Every structure is written in C-alpha cells, then in structure tokens.
UniProtKB/TrEMBL annotation:
This is Cytochrome c oxidase subunit 2. Component of the cytochrome c oxidase, the last enzyme in the mitochondrial electron transport chain which drives oxidative phosphorylation. The respiratory chain contains 3 multisubunit complexes succinate dehydrogenase (complex II, CII), ubiquinol-cytochrome c oxidoreductase (cytochrome b-c1 complex, complex III, CIII) and cytochrome c oxidase (complex IV, CIV), that cooperate to transfer electrons derived from NADH and succinate to molecular oxygen, creating an electrochemical gradient over the inner membrane that drives transmembrane transport and the ATP synthase. Signal peptide: none annotated. PROSITE patterns: COX2, COX2_CUA, COX2_TM. The lineage of its organism: Eukaryota, Metazoa, Ecdysozoa, Arthropoda, Hexapoda. It catalyses: 4 Fe(II)-[cytochrome c] + O2 + 8 H(+)(in) = 4 Fe(III)-[cytochrome c] + 2 H2O + 4 H(+)(out). It comes from Papilio bianor (Chinese peacock butterfly). GO terms for cellular component: mitochondrial inner membrane. It holds the Pfam family COX2_TM. It is a multi-pass membrane protein.
Amino acid sequence: MATWSNFNLQNSASPLMEQIIFFHDHTLIILIMITILVGYLMINLFFNKYINRFLLDGQMIELIWTIIPTITLIFIALPSLRLLYLLDELNNPLITLKSIGHQWYWSYEYSDFNDVSFDSYMINYDKSNINNFRLLDVDNRIILPMNNQIRIMVTATDVIHSWTVPSLGVKIDANPGRLNQTNLFINRPGIFFGQCSEICGANHSFMPIMIESISIKNFINWINNYS
C-alpha cells in the first residue's frame, strides 16, 4: 500500500506490475535525456554570440531534428505495445472473480463455486485498533490464491466505476451493461488495497478494494468453510 513520503510506484505484487514499472523507468530515462539536451541547447543559445546574416535554410539540421525524435518515439512505442498486449493476455485461468460496482460498495461472485458471493463495504475507522486502515478496510475481503492465473470480470449496476489495485497493475472500468475482463497473477502472499478510480458520486472515496493473497491450500479450505 502507499505510505507517507513514498514518491515512487508501489512495490509490485505481480509480473504485470513489474513490467509496468520497467516501462515507466525506461520512458523516464528517455525524458530526462531529452530534457537535459533541450535545456543545454537553450542555455547555450542565450549566451553565445553566433550571427549569420546570410543563413537562408538548413536542410541537414532539419533532417536531423526530424529523424532523431522519430527514432526516440520508436524506442518508446515498441515496449509500450508489447506491454499493452501482455496486459490483455489471458491463459487458462484457474478461477474467475466477478466484481460488480454499486453506489457505493462492491459485490463479488466466485463464478466457479456455488453460492460464494458477498458484498464488500468500507468499515468505520477505529483509532484504537492498530490493524485498522483508514478509508481502505472492508468488512469482507477478496480472498485469492497466489501463483495462479485469475480472471477478473468487472461490471456495474448504476454508474461508471473503476476497479483499481495499483500494486497488482490493474485498472479496469466497470460500465453498466458491459462486462470487461482482465487478469491477475499474484506472486506473493499479503494484503493489497485499491479504490474506485472513476468519480462515481458523493461517496466515491468510500468504496475501497481489499485483496488477501493466500496459498492455494488455504484458499481451498476457505472455499470449503464458506457459509
């Protein structure tokens, strides 16, 4: 989860989020190089005294400052396209979780199991409870097995919501009358937080997402004991 003074991206808990962070760093390095180059040229322009009264054209420099930005954009576009296709790739999911957005809470259905569904509401913040997270804790957590491919189906019943979990690299819109699909692969145990990222009304800030990642053995026990 995000903490105070953390200006970086959250630590990844999935291979897709790792790839997003790599792409972010790759693009940021290119932007820094462009900024330094342009800044140097502008500062140099202010302080030199070069004058050429007979300069009418410069076809070579025009060619150079057209080709170099094109090559730079290719270096950004190719990893970006690769990542877009990776985010849409879904291979033999173990389970399917259906997430339904409401004003202002989430409902979840485990489609592969009978009668495993629940609503997830934010719970009141209790200062005396050190394990309570303000605006992030819910009464019913999503329980998912780690190291397994998981399909997420997202929709809404009233207005547009957005199911977003930053540490897992997932952000998908929940549109009424439409079923969107994405995938998860959680590679470590833990609790991961998210929130609705689409302004959906008065209580938009109060419909958090809480995912608990556990081993497959414990997940099977949870399903068997669910009532």
